[in-house]
Amino acid sequence: MSKKVAFIGLGVMGYPMAGYLQKAGYAVTVYNRTTAKAEKWADEYQGAFAATPREAAEGAEIVLACVGNDDDLRSVVLGDDGAFAGMSANTLFVDHTTASAEVAREISEIGASKGIGFVDAPVSGGQAGAENGVLTVMCGGAEKDFDIAAVAIDAYSQACKLMGGVGAGQLTKMVNQICIAGAVQGLAEGINFAQKAGLDAEKVIEVISKGAAQSWQMENRYKTMIAGEFDFGFAVDWMRKDLGICLDTANEIGASLPNTALVDQYYADVQAMGGNRMDTSSLITRLRKLS
Q: Residues with catalytic annotation?
């Protein structure tokens, strides 16, 4: 495999992910909508940057992307300046965006008509996971494409698994977000209850986190939730985007998501309180306001 790759999208996740690729010995060319950020990345990691996705993708064997949503993905992949315009046959596009399974299949079909492979590969682990190079990556695509993608993904992941055909990665990420939504709401209610009952909430969590109630959210967010600190991690706006994808897909396939729909509305309440950019653990602010 060629060591020349491109990375499109330098948000809080993409910026360090592209950095890990460069550190792993790949020759990385990045593209970002805000050129100043691409220039900063190139200076920090001694890589290259391009003015368009097409220019970034030219000559790359693998093009990776991590952007905001379905429309963002289409905008950087398709069109005269899109990545596909700069890619040749027998190359591979890997999408780390949390998007719909529908857009994954759409982009995959267009790529296939050009001889370009496609893997949808949404990630879990948040900003900290990206910065520490320990993301979990769930993939959808052909096994031969996954085998190529996994070698590059290893630079910033601790786990990477093929879940099925194109779209399966996105569907798995939806399951991830459905489970997280319930876990965060449960933790928020538990901490708020403990405090209202006059208990030392930190001591409560320290005890119950050693039993069946344990979760990643509990281990990593309880102290900041108790302290009312929410200026880090995965923003409410992005969580609502993800839950919207889950709910839309559930309607399409006939799956019932009553708890997810409820938590989504709780996040809408947090947005109405001005918490759009707060971490998802800010669900507890709604309970404190109601109490």
A: 173
